[in-house]
């Protein structure tokens, strides 16, 4: 593949930016938690906030396609040579004020390190987001969430490079249209998060517990109860490990992009029809247990994992010899068992999506960002 725009001159100018290193060897198989994907034209590692901004502005001005990469934990990337530059964020500063609860972290900081440090300092608000892989800068991108909390609960503003103008400024969280697994940064290339600011609670207690399984484990029967942050973090990590949702190099159940499909939000009539199908096939007891949560005017949020299971895809599907399988601990995670290609993973994703659609008439939508490949 040739790309005349990535000239020696551009490479030289990139290499001259402070805190930047370049290489042409790294592959997305090394950069992603699925361990899948081919080689970018160039990998540019940025060790400071100013380096990220300068690199992105230089590449944008030259019209060179780029992909900002944090921990690669929400990416499905095609095999082969990719006509883009991977810009890796490694600006990992962290400032926190235990008295006020104000936290500022560089986009390249490992998210779980930030959570651990805030918990250690007795700050409450992000303990339920313990164990989510990836970078701090990516957390607003899809408004990460888990165990009843999401980053939108505590995010005050982000230091954003607006790619259209090259302007760098602190942008209020409200401008990002944060919603369930969404912001106007996701899929849009609008900007690069250079740092985030959080307002946490300095009283040493967690945010109100809203997730049944977690609250029960912590003996919090009162809805909205609070517990010491360390206790909540430990319990969340324990629950996540049980589902293969904490990265572990030797554990192929964690070679995933986390939850592969978002929980579908459907009209009440569609939810009723799904429930009726389950009732006819599996009886009242199962149908009455179907997870369904009010999601605003006339709509209901269903559980993608539950639908996948009830459509006949068990944990570990399609079986031991398959290179890409559902996790053996969670039907919502699609995993690489070590020898899968991106095509294997995409074929499995299609099979699951089509199976759920055929059974229930609900089309599951993938959560990760797809690069050079598509489910359709
Ligand atoms: C085992 C496992 C468990 C997971 N559990 C959860 C969970 O509980 N909840 C949840 O919400 N997610 C979960 N995820 C998904 C993923 O970890 C999150 O979406 C995470 O925030 C992605 O961060 P990253 O740095 O790896 O992003 P990447 O995968 O590197 O990038 C994802 C997208 O964000 C963009 N991006 C990254 N950084 C920036 C930036 N600084 N500015 C602008 N755009 C940026 C990229 O260009 C890309 O489009 C899980 C994933 C795995 C593998």
From TrEMBL:
Can the keyword Cell wall biogenesis/degradation be found in this entry's annotation? yes
UniProtKB keywords = Cell cycle, Cell division, Cell shape, Cell wall biogenesis/degradation, Cytoplasm, FAD, Flavoprotein, NADP, Oxidoreductase, Peptidoglycan synthesis
Primary location recorded for the protein, binned into one broad class: cytoplasm
Q: Where does the record place it?
A: Cytoplasm
Q: Which cofactor does it need?
A: FAD
Q: What is its EC number?
A: 1.3.1.98
Listed under GO cellular component are: cytosol
Q: Which HAMAP family match?
A: MurB
The free-text function statement in the UniProt record for this protein reads: Cell wall formation.
Q: Per the similarity annotation, which family is this?
A: Belongs to the MurB family.
Q: What is this protein called?
A: UDP-N-acetylenolpyruvoylglucosamine reductase
Gene source species: Corynebacterium comes
